[in-house]
Design brief:
alpha+beta, ten-stranded antiparallel sheet, five-stranded mixed sheet, 19 helices, 21% helix
Length: 949
């Protein structure tokens, strides 16, 4: 493919594009506010701290994560912070609501119905008429200050409600009265961000009186007080107004303190000029949106494109005051020197397309983002994974900030310390948490090690490749060799038989296996959604599938499969084309893989179908969560005819553009045009021939680990064990003409003893054993060892289940309840049986009548995951399996509101009891209560082990 420098590209460009076009007028902020888009329609400026928007959802429900859903008809208030398309609820800070008459601090009273026909939203502006008293509300903002304008349709007492208990948990609130037109506010809250600080300075355009206070301070609050504090705090500010009178309120935010909020107010909005502020917001949006100018006559396509570009620019959000002060990950106040500090990094989503887009059109912010990463590493001890308001939420997987850094380095973006970035990246990769310890030791993560084991292995491998590229650029050869070896770990999870990325358990493959099953071995998906995630080695992946034809056939199989998943219901899996899911990020690169097997027509067919069918100029115009701009960034890049399958390189894939002409301003005076007639050559110009990027260094390929296969992990008398290699002669990963397997069998208490022998065929074990094996390729290459543990059951008991477990939580079937293998607090690893919407009942057959001294059953609670302790557990005994007598009842004592994972053994001591059959019955908690975020849903019972002594 032809390559051009950006300078040459600029000279070939059409440089006379008009900046006067009002591109902001095409933005439709209501796109994504319906369906599962989770966007909000309110006023904000590009990458601003303030997102001033109406809240119609305050219950934390999934479709209310952005605070607003188009299906609603009641507004509770207008708050100043919102998340754009996330799957977890937070923000909604500093809520104000205008009312008239006698003020009430009850949300059911101060809320108001509204009609969508009385609602308007444009870039930087939102307006609505509240049905109650016909109050007209208009909102606009600067980066750090929100401006409200309320117009009252009748005379009377006007009120402004400030409710600091709005939406999430208030840890502590403060209101300081400066004068009758000014107050200062602290809202310290806990939700997704466990400890968030928002300071605000609120100024009214007219003097106001405090008319009502709801506060849980030690001393009862009075309206004449000048300071209010507590974990319950709401108040009303009132004045008499005439018909048609306007009341303006401006709210400056700061993460650092009252002084910061005052500085932000003074710098950004010293007055109350609503029209001027609105116009300035529109100007800012036009400046940003003009970075990409498309030639298109279809108004819907213009709205979809520019709203998508708008959505990519609503975050990350500036998180420092005008003087550079910010709250660091250590909760201390720091000053940003030479860069701007940001927050809201949904990196699992945005590393794929949003950040590559920023490298094209916003290089300065790209370096700012990376400098923010580095400061968070220095102040918080780790690079961000999903950072929110100076809190690491520990949501999602991988350490994808390294992808953003490697991509910027590969493209020669300056403004940050490359060595410091590499240091931080290496630190994240060398930790021992979240399965990394097993990953480093074994070359993969198994179900036994960590939940979501397949997804974590694959994403760690890609991130390690990114670190290897950073090491290559910096000349760190040993680090390059180490991380490029780790980046091949995907090979240990590619099942040579099914050609799917498959979970491993106890040294072998997890069984049964259904590639369509959504379960805890994958992150928000199934095997189809991860089988093609090897962006760092697409050539190697194609070879592993058996070559180009076989790989194409596998892609076809995915796109043509039934559009239904099995297993757990996963609300994120939407926009299905076969098993491809546009509504969630792991699928986003897959249509472009046809380009690698010489079938660009199939890439075009799939990409254009998605562009046409899954993006609409309607409230439900997004097929899935916006996810902080990623869903829209996919549209922006793909509609222009380009997509970066592998961030960390300079190469953009091509597809026929959606538009006749696209003009891109890449910054520093450089720009270029993608023409429909010459798009491949035009896009090649973005494949920057960068002096920083070194040639790909040679590396040694790993030998994939073998699989140790047996019927189950536990057995009664003896069990046959078989060892299978990836490197069979017919296997596409074969690197040598002959494969040799080595193994050893050890006592569980003497794992490190014994020596390896050549494996010649299946063998039997009669005692509990640890088996270790590795493969040699005949050329000096050796796999990492793989380990399996097999337990001989301590008895010959059998169990019959009278309840049906959820298929996703089977724990190996009925015998898993009496195999002597105990599950841990991490129930996602698959060692617990789960029962929903039913009681649990099982009968243990002791095989003969015995004296029974004790019966126990272990249960787990994780209320956030709808798993609650049983209300009570009953133990019955019988001689004939027909007539059972109640022997003991144990009531639960664990508070269902405890949100940490808890294991409790319900132990019953029996006196003078002989029996052959023991019945265990656990009573389900029932419907989830109102305080639970899943209120009304059915609770799970999770049970692992039943012990009879």
């Amino acid at each position: 493919m032809k390559k051009l420098s950006l300078l040459a590209f600029s000279l070939l460009s059409v440089l006379s594009y008009s900046q006067s076009a009002d591109l902001a007028s095409y933005v439709n902020p209501f796109i994504g506010t319906g369906g599962h888009g989770h966007t909000f329609p309110g006023a904000t400026v590009p990458f601003g701290m303030v997102q001033l928007s109406p809240d119609t959802r305050i219950d934390g429900s999934w479709d209310g994560c952005g605070g607003y859903h188009y299906s609603d008809n009641v507004i509770y208030g207008f708050s100043h912070t919102h998340l754009n398309g996330t799957g977890v609820s937070d923000y909604g800070d500093i809520m104000l609501m205008p009312t008239m008459g006698e003020p009430s601090l009850d949300k059911n009273d101060y809320s108001s119905p509204f009609f969508h026909m009385n609602e308007k939203a444009t870039a930087g502006y939102y307006a609505v008429e509240l049905n109650n008293d016909n109050i007209n509300v208009e909102l606009t903002s600067t980066a750090r200050v929100g401006l409200h304008q309320y117009t009252f349709s009748k005379s009377g007492q006007a009120n402004i409600i400030l409710d600091l208990n709005h939406r999430d948990q208030l840890i502590m609130g403060e209101v300081r009265v400066i004068d009758n037109k000014t107050i200062e506010v602290l809202r310290r809250s806990s939700a997704w961000a466990r400890d968030q600080y928002v300071y605000a300075r609120i100024e009214f355009s007219s003097p106001m009186n405090i008319t009502k206070v709801n506060n849980n301070a030690f001393a009862p609050a009075k309206v004449t007080d000048k300071f209010f504090a507590g974990s319950l705090l709401a108040m009303s500010f009132s004045k008499d107004v005439k018909k048609g009178e306007k009341l303006l309120v401006k709210v400056a935010l700061s993460p650092t303190g009252y002084q910061g909020a005052a500085k932000n107010m003074k710098a950004e909005m010293p007055g109350f000029d609503f029209k001027k502020t609105k116009k300035a917001a529109e100007t800012l949006w036009n400046k940003e949106l003009h970075k990409i100018e498309i030639t298109e006559k279809d108004n819907d396509k213009l709205a979809i494109f520019y709203t998508a570009l708008y959505h990519t620019m609503m975050q990350p959000n500036i998180a420092m005051d005008v003087d550079g002060m910010y709250r660091g990950r250590d909760n201390e106040i720091h000053k940003a020197e030479g860069f701007d500090y940001y927050t809201v990094f949904s990196l699992w989503d945005t590393f794929r397309a949003a950040h590559p887009l920023y490298t094209l059109i916003d290089k300065k912010r790209t370096s700012d983002f990376i400098n923010t990463f580095i400061k968070q590493y220095e102040q918080g001890g780790i690079l961000p994974v999903w950072e929110l308001a100076s809190n690491e939420t520990d949501c999602m997987i991988g350490y994808h900030s390294v992808s953003v850094m490697a991509d910027a380095m590969a493209k020669g973006i300056k403004g940050f310390d490359y060595e410091k970035a590499f240091e931080a990246a290496k630190h994240s990769a060398m930790l021992d948490h979240l399965g990394l310890k097993a990953y480093k030791a074994n070359g993969y993560i198994s179900i036994d090690d960590e939940h979501e084991s397949v997804s974590k292995t694959l994403e760690y491998a890609y991130d390690d490749w990114c670190i290897a590229q950073m090491a290559s650029i910096l000349g760190h050869t040993k680090d390059y060799e180490y991380f490029i070896t780790r980046s091949q770990s995907w090979k240990n999870l590619l099942d040579p038989e099914t050609k799917n990325m498959r979970p491993r358990k106890n040294g072998g493959w997890d069984k049964p296996f259904d590639p369509r099953e959504v379960n805890n071995n994958y992150t928000e998906g199934n095997s189809w959604h991860y089988t093609f995630f090897v962006p760092q080695d697409i050539k190697g992946m194609i070879e592993a599938f058996g070559g180009e034809k076989a790989f194409e056939a596998k892609l076809d199989e995915m796109f043509n499969a039934p559009s239904a998943t099995t297993g757990r219901e996963q609300v994120d899996v939407t926009g299905l084309v076969g098993q491809y899911a546009q509504g969630n990020e792991p699928s986003h690169h897959m249509a472009y893989l046809y380009n690698y097997v010489g079938k660009p027509e199939k890439t075009k067919e799939k990409v254009h179908y998605i562009l046409n069918e899954f993006y609409k100029n309607t409230p439900d115009g997004l097929i899935g969560n916006e996810d902080c701009g990623q869903m829209s960034a996919w549209y922006v890049l793909s509609s222009m005819g380009m997509y970066q399958v592998t961030p960390g390189t300079t190469y953009f894939n091509t597809v026929e553009p959606f538009f006749k002409k696209t003009h891109i301003n890449t910054g520093n005076g450089a720009s270029g045009t993608i023409n429909l007639s010459s798009y491949k050559d035009d896009i090649a110009a973005f494949d920057i021939n960068n002096d920083v990027v070194s040639e790909q260094l040679a590396y040694k390929e790993i030998v994939p680990v073998p699989a140790i296969e047996a019927e189950s992990k536990s057995f009664e008398d003896k069990m046959t064990v078989n060892i299978i290699s990836h490197l069979d002669k017919e296997d596409s990963l074969r690197r040598a003409p002959e494969t040799i397997l080595f193994y050893k069998v050890s006592n569980p208490h003497e794992k490190d003893k014994g020596s390896y022998a050549i494996y010649k065929g299946p063998f039997s074990i009669k005692e509990s054993s640890i088996i270790q094996a590795y493969a040699a390729d005949g050329l000096g290459g050796m796999s990492k060892p793989v380990t399996a543990t097999f337990i001989k059951k301590p008895n010959n008991y059998t169990v019959k289940l009278n309840s049906r477990y959820n298929r996703a939580y089977h724990a190996g079937g009925a015998t898993g309840l009496i195999d002597g293998i105990l599950g841990t607090e991490n129930w996602r690893k698959g060692d617990w049986q789960g029962y929903q919407s039913q009681d649990f009942e099982a009968i243990i057959d002791l095989q003969k009548k015995k004296k029974v001294n004790e019966v126990s059953a272990r249960f787990l609670q994780d209320s956030r995951a709808w798993i609650l302790m049983p209300a009570k557990v009953e133990y019955y005994v019988s001689d004939d399996n027909v007539n059972f007598v109640l022997a003991h009842t144990i009531q639960n004592t664990i508070d269902p509101k405890q949100d940490e994972s808890i294991i409790k053994s319900f132990d019953a001591t029996l006196i003078n009891v002989k029996a052959r059959y023991i019945k265990v019955k656990a009573y389900n908690f029932g419907k989830l209560p109102e305080w639970h975020q899943g209120s009304g849903g059915d609770a799970f019972i999770f049970i692992d082990e039943i012990t009879v002594k």
